[in-house]
Specification:
Length: 489
Amino acid sequence: MSSNDLHTQGLTQLARGLENGGFTAVELVTALLDRVEAHDTELNAFITVTADTALQAAERADAERNKGETGVLNGLPLVHKDIFCTRGVLTTCGSRMLENFVSPYDATVVERLAGAGAVMLGKTNMDEFAMGSSNETSYFGPVKNPWDLTCSPGGSSGGSAASVAARIAPAATGTDTGGSIRQPAALTGTTGLKPTYGRVSRYGMIAFASSLDQAGVITRSAEDAALLLGVMAGFDVRDSTSIDHPVPDYLAGLGESLQGLRVGIVRQHFDAGLDAATGNAVRDALAVLEAQGASLTEVDLPNLDLSVPTYYVVAPAECSSNLSRFDGIRFGHRAGNPEDLLDMYCRSRGEGFGAEVKRRILTGTYVLSAGYYDAYYLKAQQVRQLIADDFREAFADVDVIAGPTAPAPAFRLGDKTDDPITMYLNDIYTIGANLAGLPGISIPCGFASELPVGLHLVGPHFGEEQLLRTAHQYQLQTDWHTRCPEGYA
Ligand code: GLN
């Protein structure tokens, strides 16, 4: 393989190439850094490029390989969403509030991936504090979708998704609170996995809504996602919500056929809110699963319609609490020349946060206030439980639930920015899995208006193996995940 086409390969292929000496990690990293240089001006997918440390890490990876001491990801490049703390590297969370924050420590996810030999190329652009579905709330400007530069790549992990779609990085980390891995994966034709809540440590991942946030990956294929999840997953003493549950060999189970797999379809997912061409692509994908031996049945999730309103009470409530630490004293931007302490707090937060973050903090403070707590926050927690119960009942009869990831393909930048409710509805199919703590994956399954469409699969708690196997078997039969946007081949 020549260094001109290293960017076309996914992680598992690159791992084989490094293994059999086809190229070195330094050659690979150099080739990809050249692509950052060539394409990031138009895409704006990166907030920070760590070229020097990436080359040093690649040299170390090559030296280790020569000594025969290789981790499973030795020399494999990836990018991290700028929500993960990275020691000695700017970690902004897409906000002016953290514009100058250099983290003194690594997030567990970053530490584990680096420990297995992965090489970080840089930190990716994102919606401010992961609040958004289009990447337009970033202080660093919107990311462009490589399939159409006038369109959004989705959000909040839009920089991660765009860099994988544009073949700049073979893989990226992301976080998903209501859909922020799966929706951008759908809108950019990439594979996005959100694991079970507690499967991957949240330590060092800047908190948005702690009971919903989960770290995951955006890759070219389910196989690559399986490779990374095996390294990232597992208990962490530093995250009290991480679960001590054995980590299976996610790659080992991929080969099994789908014969006998019970796939549940949610009727409400195919109602009037779904774009027609998107619906057709998803129905075709379901037919492929059926042809591989899966059986399709309808399942009922009666409370699912309440998932978006429930989320927009719970997530703002938690964010209003989590973001109180950014006060210009303990953390974050500090306003200049304050008149007094109160002025400093008010102006530091006023200047540091953007409009969407302020909207969430105000909503959250309101629903948690003494007079409204029972009416909003408590009620939302009760409905959240009902939604989780619906899923539990459905999984008594089916192994996975399948449907569209997003209601339509990528939308134009600017189209939804004046209308938060329409923006919020982009996550209508993904939010339920976060409220119930379930794993979900989005895989490319076709096109609508020449833009990628995602198939969404949700599994029971710790059902990642089943999801990855289903996605992998589908990807063996189809080539949607190999399609590349024009100009990035
Ligand atoms: N789009 C949703 C929101 O704005 C979800 C974001 C996320 O998953 N981080 O909150």
